[in-house]
Amino acid sequence: MTASHRRQTLQALGAALLMPALGAAGHARAAQADSRVNPVRVASGLEHPWSLAFLPDGSMLVTERQGRLRRVTPDGRVSAPIAGVPAVHASGQGGLLDVALGPGFAQDRSVFLSFAQPTRGGARTAVARGTLSPDGATLRDLTVIFAQKDDPSGGHHFGSRLVFARDGTLFVTLGDRFGHRDRAQDLGSHLGKIVRIRADGSVPPDNPFVGRAGALPEIHSLGHRNVQGAALHPETGALWTHEHGPQGGDELNLEKPGANYGWPVITQGREYVTGFRIGEGSAREGIEPALHQWTPSIAPSGMAFLTSDRYPGWRGSLFVGALKFRLLVRLELDGARVIREERLLAGREQRIRDVRQGPDGLLYLITDASDGELLRLDPRG
């Protein structure tokens, strides 16, 4: 067994052993604010749903990690699997991941998917573009526009969120694949990076590492562990992300071009089994500090800024799903500063995988389970 395989095995064992203890601590701390929202089931029977995107008619595209894309109507009807989806490596955390509509969907019906792409060596995070047929039953002309250079074996830390910037470029978040964390600092590797590409997969010439010897030109920032939440700030247009730490040290970050976010050299997290410190410490000059961090880890996934007034006093808040603590986190912001954290829905015991604001201004959640649900949060009163 190689050193990386031994480390991967120990980390996985530690994660399994620590999860119940950390979860109990998180529930003890959770603020109860469920009296202000009423979770309403829109649809059920989804197998480990991962992401959703709203279509112009109010229906939703929902990915299932096993490799299916579905259309869900506002009244909860779930379609048969949409044809034309790519083959996926549906193992561990891998499979069909994020879905996003192209900026010109109204004209070209373009849909973008991120997924764990099977390879001879293992698997890698990839992004494909297709055209949704007028009846919504088929994804046509599917083309892979990006694939990680690295394709290690294993089923952990694929990322992956897709966010279109205001200029039409596409941010793709990429995990470190768990047992290969040192590559997060290697500009010759896509592991542990956020990349920025055009909608056709080409590289924008203003990317920060274009022309730098030994650096992959798609890279926009480095030093990430496993980013499963990303959203544009509604006022500034800046990309905000969050990522999983190991034993503690989940981070909320303001992503900047060329910035280094530290993993695995600088982190608040510790090794799973031993509890030993990872890297050099929690801060260093030249490493971008987190805006907010969670210790114990909440295992964040999905993220959305609220721009509507549907929930009194919550406009401008940032909402984050939590897999481990099975709740929804509301972060109250003052600019780029988190001034308050509130924990919602803790009593439902559901792993929240994604959070989106719908065209009606309400928040929608999907839950990660073999019988996963699509929920709408209705205001009470």
From TrEMBL:
Gene3D superfamilies from the UniProt entry:
TolB, C-terminal domain
All copies of domain Glucose/Sorbosone dehydrogenase, residue ranges? 46-376
Is Signal included in the keywords of this UniProt record?
yes
**Presence of keyword Transcription:** no
Domain of life where this protein originates:
Bacteria
Which residues, if any, are the signal sequence? 1-30
* Keyword list, A-Z: Signal
InterPro entries, per the entry: 6-blade_b-propeller_TolB-like, Glc/Sorbosone_DH, Quinoprot_gluc/sorb_DH_b-prop, TAT_signal
Q: What is this protein called?
A: Glucose/arabinose dehydrogenase
Species this protein is from: Quisquiliibacterium transsilvanicum
